[in-house]
């Protein structure tokens, strides 16, 4: 028989290293053709940090993100960005990049302030123009300001760094503020369980994630969908078999990870509860999507079958064993 | 937001063009004139005293340029992000299957394989321990020092006994989770080039600046003599935070003066790399009649394997997050990371939280069932809000979106209900 | 083992390469021809990263002998964009739809998708999922890959791009 059920999983996740200083730095060079070189220690491992950091630099400088060339993770030229871990790079390296871009644009703002006769604090850069925030029509071209800086012998360079506010944890009580901010999420899973085979099919996943601000919504969705896939693997199939210290399934033939056929419809929902200390309100999203998926799926299976499970991964064998046990108990109850 | 803004735009990734045309260079896509291939001889036993390595026969094979052992490490023969407890090459003690014993650099991959097979290892096996509970028992085989306990992290808030006394319902269960492999699609890889007294390493990594420090320490160089270039990296998920190929490739390049490339096979990637920690979690939750959480008591026992890696960080994070995104007035958490002779465990996406997340979310559903609430109701009564304190007494001031995520998911479920 | 000189036709160009009878196609393409867009993720035919097209059919080049590919038309990821550097609609769709993250599975994924669209220009979602099920992606959760392939199919059938 096939039975359906649904389940919830919620999570929170501290952004950055736990109770430790974990700063990141960045360098910006605004070139005289209006293009930008951004040097960041932040390693983009596929999650898209370079693109996100380029968007942050572009927003500050008022240039197209595609005109920001990102050199990432080269210790010969880039300042330290700390690890690409702890879902920390958008938040921490993002703030470093923002600070570096703001410093690089200072000479331009000074020049433009003189020309426009307004305090430089009232100027914004957007779409290659510098203008008072209250009067966008009265603008000077960004590239012209760069050329004027160069003629005056001024470079447009910036460096910046950011360290999230944290405190250590007390040894005895754990008291402290281990993270400057937290990401939150709720996921919902709908499953169908075949009671003959113990096979679980995940029909639908809905995943809502509070990321503070989605600098790049498509990239955020990509993290959510990818995390759901990994969480599905964690829930139902992934287990490294280790016997006497030896891994018995060291390869993809026997260590199964989700394929396209295992994935259900995933609906990613982005929630933006802006973080005051983050770049344009952003927090992080790399790890959170994996966390609630497994409990949502397991709760859904329990909802379908009326049996609880306490061990991952929830394989068909475990389901069949639990169903047999339940039947046995019911049988005994009926007999008495 | 106006179209002129860069923030909030779904832009395609900057390096996407290179990636869809096959022009993006991952580390194994690089090669250099005179480049040597490399391999690592690894332990096949989990716990042993290494007595000797006979490398002469391997050295004499055609095409073999260097065979290195612990003796050939010019600097510090240990790496590790939190505790430097992992030998670059085993000197005297093997602690896991997969421990690196010797390195080979040769003109071809075939010569590398032949040389690795020609090295004779003599060792004396030691009693090993594979479960954290056994590893904590008196008289257990010790991996190092006087105890196998790597970390005991405590969270204490309020008084859980008091919460239990007042509770309407108490739920206690034991949860177990497995070892998990990162399985990033690109296996670990490094290419090292020595130029005079400097070295450059192109590598697949999540933390190039950490790699720089470790390579410098291993080679006995000042950090500014080492340049680490993070090449396009084919996924990480925490598995490329530890040192893998970086120091080995650097050592071989340092000794041979030639560029050296070391790339793991998939099998070697499985054997050599860190894993997600398996946990055994004893989780007790207490709630009042209305379904408000009063207290939790949690014991997390994690198998951290043979080396510390990120273990202390993972277990600390697990302890801090053990409540889930809920306000809990009374909290008592003990998290233990224990050395065993299993594969070492470290960072993996979620950093110890997916395990406790599994436990606290099943607990919530069971509490709900016992109280006659549904899964939405129990969570709605407990989620964190601005102005509340976490288990570590941190006051949350703003940007606390758990309630909103719950609301949005419920709305989506309702809207799409058939 | 004795090396022999073979001819391989890759992306409409002829390459003459010395190979051993047991050399695998992936290694020859990557190391001898120098086209490194084809990736090696497992070396055992389990992950699909090494997929190339042989006479239009997706083949796992890490378990295929190079010597067996003489006289056949091999297509690698480098052969998809046209001579002017214009991307194939699949490449463009992968880019636009965020179907690429780390990019390591991407070449094999795109080539598998190309073989699908060449024989079935308007596949259903299920047909797309079936066709790609042998290609592992650890990053994306596949959703955007399915969307990209679907979008490319529509682009090709309406735009008439080959």
Explain what this protein looks like in three dimensions:
- Chain A has 336 residues and is of the alpha+beta class.
- Helix content of chain A is 31%, strand content 24%.
- Chain A has two domains: 2-13 and 188-335, Aldehyde oxidase/xanthine dehydrogenase, molybdopterin binding domain (Aldehyde Oxidoreductase, domain 4), CATH 3.30.365.10; 24-160, Aldehyde Oxidoreductase, domain 4 (2-Layer Sandwich), CATH 3.30.365.10.
- Chain A is built from seven helices and 13 strands.
- The radius of gyration of chain A is 26 Å and the shape is elongated.
- The mean pLDDT of chain A is 97.
- Chain B is an alpha+beta fold.
- Chain B has twelve helices and 15 strands.
- In chain B, the strands form three sheets. In chain B, strands 3-5-1-12-9-10-11 form a seven-stranded mixed β-sheet, sandwiched between helices. In chain B, strands 7-15-14-13-8 form a five-stranded mixed β-sheet, with helices on both faces. A three-stranded antiparallel β-sheet of chain B has the order 4-2-6.
- The model of chain B has no long low-confidence stretch (mean pLDDT 97).
- In chain C, 35% of the residues lie in helices and 15% in strands.
- Chain C contains five helices and five strands; from the N terminus they run E-E-H-E-E-E-H-H-H-H.
- The model of chain C has no long low-confidence stretch (mean pLDDT 96).
- Chains in contact: A-B, A-C, B-C.
- At the A-B interface, strand 1, helix 1, strand 4, strand 9 and strand 10 of A face strand 7, strand 8, helix 6, strand 11 and helix 8 of B.
Mean pLDDT of chain C: 96
Count of DSSP H/I helices of chain C? 5
The CATH architecture of the domain at 132-181 and 275-417 in chain B comes to 2-Layer Sandwich
* CATH fold node name of the largest domain in chain C: Ubiquitin-like (UB roll)
**Under the CATH scheme, which class of the domain at 132-181 and 275-417 in chain B?**
Alpha Beta
Fraction in beta strands of chain C? 15-25%
Percent in strands of chain B: 25-35%
Q: Which strand order do you get reading across the main beta sheet of chain B?
A: 3-5-1-12-9-10-11
Number of helices in the DSSP assignment of chain B: 12
| Spatial arrangement of strands, main beta sheet of chain C | 2-1-5-3-4
CATH topology type of the domain at 132-181 and 275-417 in chain B: Aldehyde Oxidoreductase, domain 4
Number of strands of chain C: 5
Number of separate strands of chain B: 15
Q: Decide which structural class fits the backbone of chain C.
A: alpha+beta
Full CATH superfamily name of the largest domain in chain C: Beta-grasp domain
Structural shape of chain B? globular
| Quaternary structure state of the chains depicted | heterotrimer
């Amino acid at each position: 028989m096939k039975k359906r059920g649904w389940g919830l999983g919620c999570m929170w996740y501290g952004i950055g290293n736990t109770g430790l200083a974990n700063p990141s730095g960045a360098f910006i060079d605004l070139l005289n053709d209006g293009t930008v070189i951004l040097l960041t220690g932040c390693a983009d491992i596929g999650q898209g940090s370079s693109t996100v950091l380029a968007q942050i630099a572009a927003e500050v400088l008022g240039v197209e993100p595609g005109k920001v060339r990102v050199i990432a993770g080269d210790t010969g030229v880039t300042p330290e960005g700390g690890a690409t871990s702890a879902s920390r790079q958008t938040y921490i390296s993002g703030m470093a990049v923002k600070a570096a871009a703001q410093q690089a644009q200072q000479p331009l703002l000074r020049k433009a302030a003189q020309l426009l006769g307004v305090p430089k604090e009232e100027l914004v850069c957007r779409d290659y123009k510098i203008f008072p925030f209250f009067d966008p029509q009265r603008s000077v071209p960004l590239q012209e300001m760069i050329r004027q800086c160069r003629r005056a012998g001024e470079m447009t360079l910036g460096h910046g760094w950011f360290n999230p506010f944290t405190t250590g944890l007390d040894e005895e009580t754990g008291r402290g503020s281990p993270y400057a901010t937290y990401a939150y999420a709720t996921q919902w899973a709908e499953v169908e369980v075949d009671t003959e085979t113990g096979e679980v099919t995940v029909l639908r996943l809905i995943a809502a994630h509070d990321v503070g601000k989605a600098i790049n919504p498509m990239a955020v969705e990509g993290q959510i969908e990818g995390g759901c896939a990994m969480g599905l693997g964690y829930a139902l199939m992934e287990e490294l078999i280790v016997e006497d210290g030896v891994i018995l399934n060291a390869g993809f033939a026997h260590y199964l990870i989700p394929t396209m056929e295992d994935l259900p419809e995933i609906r990613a929902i982005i929630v933006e509860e802006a973080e005051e200390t983050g770049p344009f309100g952003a927090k992080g999203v790399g790890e959170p999507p994996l966390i609630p998926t497994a409990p949502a799926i397991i709760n859904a299976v329990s909802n379908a079958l009326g049996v609880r499970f306490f061990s991952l991964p929830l394989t068909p064998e475990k389901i069949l064993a639990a169903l047999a046990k339940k039947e046995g108990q019911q049988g005994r109850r009926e007999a008495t | 937001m106006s179209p002129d803004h860069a923030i909030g735009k779904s832009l395609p990734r900057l390096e996407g063009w290179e990636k869809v045309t096959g022009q993006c260079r991952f580390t194994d896509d690089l090669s250099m004139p005179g480049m040597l291939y490399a391999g690592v001889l690894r332990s096949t036993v989990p716990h042993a005293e290494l007595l000797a390595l006979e490398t002469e026969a391997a050295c004499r094979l055609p095409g073999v340029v260097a065979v290195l052992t612990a003796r050939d490490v010019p600097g510090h023969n240990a790496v590790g992000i939190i505790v430097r407890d992992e030998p670059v090459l085993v000197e005297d003690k093997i602690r896991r299957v997969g421990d690196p014993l010797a390195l080979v650099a040769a003109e071809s991959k075939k010569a590398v394989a032949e040389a690795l097979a020609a090295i004779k290892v003599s060792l004396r096996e030691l009693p090993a321990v594979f479960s954290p509970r056994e590893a904590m028992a008196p008289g257990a085989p010790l991996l190092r020092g006087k105890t196998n306990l790597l970390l005991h992290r405590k969270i204490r808030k309020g008084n859980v006994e008091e919460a239990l006394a007042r509770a309407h319902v108490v739920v206690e269960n034991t949860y177990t989770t497995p070892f998990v492999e990162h399985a990033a699609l690109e296996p670990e890889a490094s290419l090292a080039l020595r130029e005079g007294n400097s070295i450059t390493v192109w590598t697949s990594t999540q933390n190039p600046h950490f790699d720089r420090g470790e390579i410098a320490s291993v080679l006995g160089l000042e950090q500014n003599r080492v340049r680490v270039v993070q090449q396009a990296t084919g996924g990480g998920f925490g598995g490329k935070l530890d040192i893998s190929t970086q120091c080995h490739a650097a050592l071989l390049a340092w000794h041979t003066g030639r560029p050296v490339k070391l790339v793991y096979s998939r099998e070697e990637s499985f054997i050599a790399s860190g894993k997600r920690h398996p946990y055994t979690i004893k989780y007790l939750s207490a709630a009042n009649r209305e379904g408000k959480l009063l207290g939790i008591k949690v014991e997390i026992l994690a198998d951290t394997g043979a080396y510390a890696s990120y273990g202390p960080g993972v277990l600390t994070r697990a302890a801090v997050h053990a409540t889930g995104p809920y306000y809990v007035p009374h909290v008592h958490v003990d998290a233990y990371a224990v050395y065993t002779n299993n594969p070492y465990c470290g960072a993996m996406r979620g950093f110890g939280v997916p395990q406790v997340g599994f436990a606290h979310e099943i607990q919530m559903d069971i509490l709900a069932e016992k109280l006659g609430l549904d899964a939405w109701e129990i969570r709605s009564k407990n989620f964190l809000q601005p102005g509340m304190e976490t288990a570590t007494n941190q006051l949350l001031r703003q940007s606390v979106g758990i309630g909103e995520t719950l609301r949005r998911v419920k709305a989506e479920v309702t809207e799409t209900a058939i | 083992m004795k090396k022999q000189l073979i001819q391989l036709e890759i992306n409409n160009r002829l390459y003459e390469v010395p190979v051993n009878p047991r050399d695998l196609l992936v290694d020859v393409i990557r190391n001898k021809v120098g086209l490194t867009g084809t990736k090696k993720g497992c070396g055992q035919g389990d992950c699909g990263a090494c997929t190339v097209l042989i006479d239009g059919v997706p083949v796992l080049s890490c378990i295929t002998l190079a010597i067996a590919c003489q006289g056949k038309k091999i297509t690698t990821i480098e052969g998809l964009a046209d001579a002017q550097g214009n991307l194939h609609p699949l490449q463009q769709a992968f880019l636009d739809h965020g179907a690429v993250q780390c990019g390591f599975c991407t070449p094999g994924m795109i080539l598998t998708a190309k073989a699908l669209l060449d024989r079935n220009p308007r596949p259903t979602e299920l047909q797309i999922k079936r066709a790609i099920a042998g290609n592992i992606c650890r990053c994306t959760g596949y959703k955007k890959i399915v969307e990209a392939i679907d979008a490319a199919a529509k682009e090709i059938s309406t735009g008439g791009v080959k």
